[in-house]
Amino acid sequence: MTVKKKLLDITLIVSVPFQVEKAIGDSMDILVSGSMAYDRIMDFPGSFADHILPDKIHTLNVSFTVNGLRENFGGTAGNIAYALALLGQSPTIVATIGCDNARYFDWLKQNIIDLSGITVVDDEFTAGAYITTDQSDNQITGFNPGAMKCRTFYDVDQVDVKNTIAIVAPGNIDDMAAYPQIYREKGIRFIFDPGQSLPMWEGEALAEAIEGAEILITNDYELDLVMKMTELSVDDLLKKVKIVISTRGEEGSRIYSDGNQVEVNSIKAKQVNDPTGAGDAYRAGLIKGLIEGKDIEQCAIMGSACASFAVENYGTQEYSFTIEEFEQRLASYK
């Protein structure tokens, strides 16, 4: 089924190319809204500093020949859904993607991920990050939001609200404002994750989007930024949400709820090669725990276990594990 809709001057092709049947034993629908992106990573075999003249910064015009290019599947919605699929879940991605979607769609189908919530923007490319890293680990990044500039057209009425959990991850800013309101009105449990979208928010709008979430999740730096932007303390935020979780990389995560503060250690990875995407993997493990009815501390430990696999590989959807391997990693928690 294909439906054309007009938004501003962009023609949107809303497609249902692949819909996953609910697996036996799946107790909840999972809606994952956020971004879909291609990460294109390049390595420069030198130092940027050697090719940039300090007294010519105002007329900068440089070109770097790289060793090659690697393309990885990314975006917050794609990353979270991928990790959930590894955990045996059947998430529905609610995001936009561009005309260059074939490779990403093939990948998601291989991993049995529902594409029916994805809006295809026929005259935009998929969001893309172009990252060049030199030998000193300095980076120059260009980001094209592409299809992410457009809203999605997902009909929430098609889900069983009492058996649905959603996460609002960084993506189209209008979607991030709209879905919390929809979820509140429908009575759908949701997690709000502002992440890298924070610079695009105004404090009042951010506070409104947070309202009613079961969990507000950020990293340590982002939580400070949320509090500064909204002029709300953690105690104030806990009047709007049930739980606040702050992830802290290798130091684990911190859970705030009902006046309590709990520290959850990270789970040791076999090796740490790339932290990119670990936060999204953590969120997937957390959601898996919530679906299974675990207490919030155990959910956070499951998030840590999932994140430990992500950091072992370069790229955001380059890792994999079996349920047995996940259980073994979870059992290693100290």
- Summed over residues and divided by their number, the pLDDT gives a mean of 90
Named CATH architecture: 3-Layer(aba) Sandwich
For the CA atoms, what is the radius of gyration? 20 Å
- Count the E strands: 15
Number of helices: 9
Q: What structural class do helix, strand and pairing data support?
A: alpha/beta
Shape: globular
The helix fraction, in percent, is 25-40%
SSE order, one letter for each helix or strand: EEEEEHEHEEEEHEHEHHEEEHHH
Q: Estimate what percentage of residues fall within beta strands.
A: 15-25%
Question: How does this structure look, described?
Answer:
This protein is α/β, with parallel strands linked by helices. It has one domain (25-331): 3-Layer(aba) Sandwich (UDP-N-acetylmuramoyl-L-alanine:D-glutamate ligase), CATH 3.40.1190.20. It contains nine helices and 15 strands. An eleven-stranded mixed β-sheet has the order 1-2-7-6-3-10-11-12-13-14-15, sandwiched between helices. Helix 1 (76-86) packs across helix 7 (278-291), helix 4 (203-210) crosses helix 5 (220-230) and helix 7 (278-291) packs antiparallel against helix 8 (296-310). The longest helix has 15 residues, at 296-310. The radius of gyration is 20 Å and the shape is globular.
Offer a concise description of the structure.
With 334 residues, the protein is of the alpha/beta class.
Key descriptive features of the protein:
334 residues, alpha/beta, UDP-N-acetylmuramoyl-L-alanine:D-glutamate ligase, eleven-stranded mixed sheet, four-stranded mixed sheet, 9 helices, 15 strands, globular
